[in-house]
Design goal:
By secondary structure, this protein is of the alpha/beta class. It has two domains: about 170 residues, Rossmann fold (3-Layer(aba) Sandwich), CATH 3.40.50; about 100 residues, Dihydrodipicolinate Reductase, domain 2 (2-Layer Sandwich). It is built from eleven helices and twelve strands. The strands form two sheets. Strands 3-2-1-4-5-6 form a six-stranded parallel β-sheet, sandwiched between helices. The protein has a six-stranded mixed β-sheet with strand order 8-9-10-7-11-12. The chain is globular, with a radius of gyration of 19 Å. The chain starts with 6 loop residues before the first strand and ends with a helix. The model has no long low-confidence stretch (mean pLDDT about 95).
């Protein structure tokens, strides 16, 4: 990439139940409606169809390379999201791209897949959750060549749907308790409610007590910071919206996540800004706080 030129991005995937290679690439490149119609995740063409491209895209960056474990899938993503190059090996991207999007949410594979790019000095966006243990998180950072090279988040930290406004907080008074509900598993989706709550109340580095509970297919994790407590419920196979309910000294309010496209776009835009500035967008301390709760929340009850 020449100074000020368009960033070339490589995208890696896929993992079961996760369509981010389609959607993330389309947010940069636009998409082919006919090819995207057969994307195995119908929500993606639905929300992309509500946008106008190229206006809705992210300027100054383009996904130019794609790799998945299945070459047929790679070619379908390339056709749907207008990616010109399908590579045989993910390592073939080194020297061909300026940054990498690791768009799969199976955290157990993140370290092995990230190391070649971190060691090569390439900025990398690792899909949520970055890790499920502090040991693995520290290993990722051990391969980082400069601060800010590693970026990871739940895009929901950027969702206006889940950010309490100053007026809402004023109406609530002192927030005493948070109830958050998310579908699917703690390991893959717990981060989608933990991170927005930690972000809203500045709790990343605050000491807390974490207690996991498993019951009737659900996984409930309670967290106590002293002045504030929270319960995070993952519904497993049961359907449900992503909701966060705040209980204050004067009122309670519920927030529901609805705008997937904008949350993804803001997260990807933040990554691009960090790549250009070589600045740490999300501090290591914040990822440490998130992963610490995710790890403790997986522990078995005694």
């Amino acid at each position: 990439m020449k100074s000020g030129g368009e960033l070339r991005l490589g995208i890696l995937g896929m993992s079961e139940g996760n369509g981010h290679p389609y959607s993330w690439a389309a947010i940069f490149n636009g998409y082919d409606p006919a090819a995207m119609a057969s994307c195995p995740f119908p929500a993606i063409p639905a929300y992309l169809g509500e946008q106008r491209f190229p206006e809705a895209g992210i300027p100054g960056a383009r996904v130019t390379h794609v790799w998945t474990q299945d070459r047929t899938v790679s070619h379908h993503i390339a056709a749907a999201s207008l990616i010109p190059v399908v590579v045989e090996s993910c390592r073939d991207m080194v020297g061909q791209v300026d940054a990498v999007l690791l768009a799969r949410d199976d955290a157990e594979n993140h370290l092995a897949m990230s190391i070649p790019f971190l060691d090569a000095g390439l900025p990398i966006y690792v899909d949520k959750p970055v890790a499920l243990s502090l040991e693995v998180l520290d290993s990722l950072y051990a391969h980082q060549r400069y601060p800010g090279q590693l970026f990871s988040c739940s895009a929901l930290r950027y969702s206006a749907d889940l950010q309490p406004t100053p007026q809402m907080l004023a109406d609530l008074g002192d927030v005493k308790h948070v109830q958050a509900v998310v579908p699917k598993s703690w390991e893959k989706y717990g981060v989608h409610v933990v991170e927005p709550v930690l972000n809203a109340f500045g709790l990343f580095d605050k000491p807390c007590v974490v207690r996991p509970h498993r019951m009737a297919g659900a996984h409930v994790v309670t967290v106590d910071w002293g002045a504030l407590s929270a319960s995070f419920t993952c519904l497993g196979a049961a359907p449900g919206d992503i909701r966060i309910r705040l209980y204050g000294s004067r009122a309670c309010r519920e927030m529901t996540f609805t705008d997937t496209f904008t949350a993804f776009r803001r997260a990807l835009q933040s990554f691009v800004e960090g790549v250009r500035s070589k600045q740490e967008v999300i501090p290591r301390m914040q990822l440490h706080g998130i992963v610490a709760i995710l790890e403790k929340g997986m522990a078995r009850e005694h």
